[in-house]
Amino acid sequence: MNESERAYAPGLKGVLAGETALARVDGENGRLHYRGYPIGELVERGSYAQVAELLWTGEWNADASLSCAPLPAEVIDALRVLPSSTHAMDALRTALSVWGAVEGTLWPPTVEQARALTAVAPSALAAFARIRDGLEPVEPDAGLGLAEGFLYQLRGERPDPAAARALDAYFVVGAEHGFNASTFAARVIISTHSDIASAVVGAIGALKGPWHGGAPAEVVDQLHEMGDIDQAEAWIRGTLERGERLMGFGHRVYRAYDPRAAALRRVAESQAHAADWLQKAVAVEEIALRVLEEFKPDYPIKTNVEYYAAAVLQGVGLPPNLFPATFALARHAGWTAHCLEQAEVDVLIRPDVRYVGPSERPLPA
Amino acid sequence: MNESERAYAPGLKGVLAGETALARVDGENGRLHYRGYPIGELVERGSYAQVAELLWTGEWNADASLSCAPLPAEVIDALRVLPSSTHAMDALRTALSVWGAVEGTLWPPTVEQARALTAVAPSALAAFARIRDGLEPVEPDAGLGLAEGFLYQLRGERPDPAAARALDAYFVVGAEHGFNASTFAARVIISTHSDIASAVVGAIGALKGPWHGGAPAEVVDQLHEMGDIDQAEAWIRGTLERGERLMGFGHRVYRAYDPRAAALRRVAESQAHAADWLQKAVAVEEIALRVLEEFKPDYPIKTNVEYYAAAVLQGVGLPPNLFPATFALARHAGWTAHCLEQAEVDVLIRPDVRYVGPSERPLPA
Q1: Exposure on the CB side of residue B316, measured as CA atoms within 13 A
Q2: Sign of CA dihedral B31, B33, B38, B41
Q3: B11: left (phi over 0), alpha (psi -120 to 50) or beta
Q4: B20–A10 C-beta distance less than 8 A
């Protein structure tokens, strides 16, 4: 086949790079399913442990449980080496790289490896956050679920049940979302018969990019910046007139209202301590959607998952500099499930490339 | 566009996922160029420093130089934490993750970042190898080139010039090779506006897979296993009759003789101490090519780069467990050059996926 006859697809937009039985993302209609189950039902009636097991095994297990795992000493020692100014995503990436080195995980990836990696990641992030603050890491409590256990290890005390429930719902919503860049990076890596830790370490690196993992913390900043609600409309108009982006709105895939935003909004509404902040977020959303429609009438821009993710994470009391890494914790279930799926297909992911450089030439004398 | 109308390309074989001006890989004719310069000329008359600068900047700089960089204390401390049994690729991945955390590299990637990362990686691998052997790391010597400086830091003494030259030639040959899986992983990661260290850390994870970084050490094992040259043919026939792979032969892209193997064979032939081992390798190659042609007359399988890479690395005196990570060191120039190129294009790499899971269903009660 000649190069000129082949599909040229920079960014691979519209190219079906594989098959998945994990998530169905229907951007046109604003719907998301994990293995056929609607995200709204999963948030309302399921737990992250159930969702993770569903993604890994394909089965709904009502009794599924998942707790944070203790960290190998080497991981804690490596976290102590990092400067306290380290980006939380760099710390999580490093911690899991050390975990992979210590565990010596090998191809093929297994459900046990997926579970172990997903269970150790929140412990690693919590240990990093405590060490940088001059505190000692807290041993995980095997009696707590993953999200609750993460908050416990961050603070050294049990979180209130509503906060634990809200963060668990956030984890459900963030667990999986098709062939996004980080998941695709994980699949490329594992497709070489590398190991699951290498794949997840690569995925964390991809999620670190603001074009992918986004900047949920900036939603919080933005709401602070715009001042009182009666100043919000002028602030939003000014931002759009300067050609700047409004954080928390618009998504590459969703044209309709992001079903994850809808589910998280309901969760946020149930959080008593987030009340003031949430009230403002709801009011600002209404103004923003109205102004966006006026500015871009032909191109629907709706609220995205980050907007209410910020509300939930803020409500739960997480510091904004941990928001992206907390998203990474939630996505572990999906990344590792994709590793299992890729290993089933077992084909090397290696695209072609069009050469556009100089013609053959001799080396200068 | 309907899903069924879109190209379905698992593994992305034949899909042009982007453009590059770095390497031209002509598998049909067994030719490889970096920015138009034939690999044979680059090996014969160029150095890795010149090749790396050429890849990063597009310019041939006869005065280019590149030495190993000193490691930040945090990287050495993190390497001390790892068990001595750690896979060298896991150690390199971890060391560069720590380096990225300490340096706080940010988007967009720059030539300075590319140079810094490429210069620090050999120091990290050498420090790991010494620490696991119970030795202290050796400070880099800024007066030595990258390959020579790597050998110096491994052993604490200056290598002989022929070995340094041979390893430099290996680095030239391994520097770049289009959209292979590790390079593609790096481009996916940096395409999210993540940082160059995250991209290279992901690439190392991909290269770790034996389907990509291969198993040059197994070429050595195989030559040992087959015994004397007069037993080689029987051993090769037995291996192929059992349906097993012959290491060092066959490549996804090259149908003709791999030009990198040809260049490295010439380098190996110039290494005096590799003489016995090389003589055997040359004799075995001849037998293997003859038997392979007999077994697969319709599908040309030629010597690949690993075969003579093993000869050079063995000749230079590297332990086989460092072969894959040494390949990673060489590929740093290419990975980081691709990061620069991807940042110029600046498009998120995010393919689509075909959903093949269950239809919508309610959660079990």
Answers
A1: 35
A2: negative
A3: left
A4: no
**CA pair distance A304, A198, nearest whole angstrom:** 30
Chain B residues close to A41, C-beta within 8 Å: 362-363
Place of tokens 């210590």: A102
How many beta-carbon contacts under 8 Å exist across A and B? 388
Q: Do A351 and B16 touch (CB under 8 A)?
A: yes
Residue B112 forms contact with A (CB below 8 Å): no
How far apart are the C-alpha atoms of A276 and A88, rounded to whole Å?
28
d(CA B160, CA A292): 68
Positions of A annotated as catalytic residues are 251, 306
Averaged pLDDT for residues A82-96: 98
The band of A314, judged by pLDDT with boundaries at 50, 70 and 90, is confident
DSSP B334: H
CA distance B267 to B166: 6
Helix, strand, or coil here: A34?
Answer: strand
Q: Cβ contact (<8 Å) for B7 and A22?
A: no
Q: How far apart are CA A33 and CA A80, in angstroms?
A: 40
* A267 phi-psi bin (left φ>0, alpha ψ -120 to 50, beta other): alpha
**Interchain contact, A351 vs B179, CB within 8 Å:** yes
Q: Find the length of chain A.
A: 365
Mean pLDDT of chain A: 93
Predicted confidence (pLDDT) per residue in A230-280, tens digit: 999 999 999 999 998 898 998 877 888 889 999 988 888 877 666 677 788
User: What is the model's pLDDT at position A1?
Assistant: 44
Q: For the ranges B9-18, B115-124, B324-333, B355-364, which has the lowest average pLDDT? A: B9-18
Restricting to B residues 190-209, those with a Cβ less than 8 Å away from any Cβ of A are 190-195, 197-199, 201-209
- Residues B129/B154, Cβ–Cβ less than 8 Å: yes
- Is-catalytic flag, B306? yes
- The pLDDT, as a whole number, for residue B300 is 81
* Predicted pLDDT at A242: 95
Torsion of CA A157, A162, A166, A168, to 10 degrees: 60
Domains of chain A: 44-211+323-345 (1.10.580.10), 215-315 (1.10.230.10)
* Chain A nearest CA to B126, separation (Å): 17
The sign of the dihedral angle between the CA atoms of A181, A184, A190, A191 is: negative
Alpha-carbon distance of A70 to A76, in angstroms, equals 10
- Is residue A217 predicted with pLDDT exceeding 90? no
Per residue in B289-324, pLDDT tens? 999 999 988 888 889 888 989 988 988 899 999 999
Smallest Cβ distance to A18: which of B10, B35, B83? B10
Catalytic residue among B33, B53, B218, B251: B251
List, for residues B191-204, the tens digit of each pLDDT value: 999 999 999 999 99
Interface predicted TM-score of the whole assembly (ipTM), two decimals: 0.95
Q: What tokens were used for A307?
A: 């907007």
